[in-house]
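thread: overnight batch results

M.L. [08:02]
morning all. the overnight job finished for the chain we discussed friday. pasting input first so we're all looking at the same thing
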Amino acid sequence: MWTTQIKKLVILAIYIGNSITLLAQTETTLPVRLLACFEKKDTSIITGELAPNFSVAGHTGEGASFRLNQIVKNYPLKAVHILSEKKTNRGTLLQIEITDSKGKTTSDQALVDGNGKLIYFSLFDQLYGLKRENKPKLRAVIPFENKNGSMYLLVKINDYEKPLRLLFDTGADGMAISQQLADVIGLKVTRENNASVVGGNTKIQVSDNNNILLDTLQLAGQGIAIFPEMGKEGDGIIGNTLIRQFITHINYDENTISLYDFGDFQYKGKGTTVPITMPAGVMILPGQLEIVKDKRYSGHFVFDTGAAYDLICFRPFVRQNKLLISGFKPEAQAATVSMGISSPTFAGRSYQFAISALPAMQGLPVSLMGGSAGNEQWQPGFDGSIGVRLLSRYNITINLAEGEAYFSPNRLHDHPQDFLVRNYQFGWDNIGQLRALGPVGTSENTDGLKAGVAIQQIDKYTVDQLKNKPSLIEEIRLKAKEESIPVTTVDKNIVNI
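M.L. [08:03]
and the structure it wrote out:
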């Protein structure tokens, strides 16, 4: 009995001692190094105090390093004092007093991990527009048009009266429209910039300090990229403009995007938290691809609501892991074209794919990027892109301030995966209707089956039969290798493919 109590006291003493040591180390090293860093305008002084997931306004890696360097060069910090600490489930929250060169004192917060390394400093976040509130408020609920998972928002720019139909595209850093539309609106070019597109890089123009209106939400001082051309669908894109300023909840069951202040936010529904990073302006998720059974590859994939597919693996990842000669069986050959840069792709089915800790999705369609003259030297910094055909199976809350996204299965989640019959792709939408998604490998519809049309029956099986017994889909796919397959639309048209 006495031995057990003594052990408990020793463990408690060790725990208290370690906690005191951690705070003491933080108090002595973090403020001193922060101050020295600002005095000497040298970020290398504080590098050893930064956690691996250190972020500035949600940006991590190179993005955080760039922003930290700008802050250190320009912010007049003169004194730093740690006032108190509070244990949280994410680390130790420090209350910090900051004094600038004019003698102005502010109260800020910093989060450090179990090793006393800095995860975020609210002062840095605020300087880049990310402010945490004690009680996050709902700022707007914005309806979107759901086109097979792709989200289109109505947006007004400056004094141009006509609303624009912009694709909500988390695979893009910000807003973008075509040169032709920019001329009509009257956007003023303020600078040039380099932009990364799928397969390579291109140079674009940028218009700064624009006002935009989304439903009831007004955002001032927005930058808009101007590309020579944009895609045929919609008037342009609205990228990570929203997720950088708000906790963003995408509800595919109701076709709405809800925007909240950053802060102590409680996620709704049963779901799974997934870590996200933003090293280069776009969100990255960890994923595990099993291209064929027992051949697994871990990678980092762009969270890309602007992409109308399930999953694509970029050329460096494909080449490094030799995915095209791994036993993968392509069912169709196509090409991805982004801003004039074309890359060959090979479409087929993976054995399974999982986003972080989410349950793996069996038989997920995947495209593997082949080599071309334009992409062999391309180094995107990530391994592929997860598109809306996968993402739209979840309601998702993106919380950039905390470096996480919360995935909750929605109505579409349990429907069968998208599938190919010959060179034509089919998949369910968020109201449970099977649709033709379009041909793979050709831009022309030679079979007369329009992309987006609702399907009633494929071969002799109804949509309900295919949904309830997915093995029938494989039966049709095998049959299609030998003969044409009749497809009946909801308006009773029959098209043989």
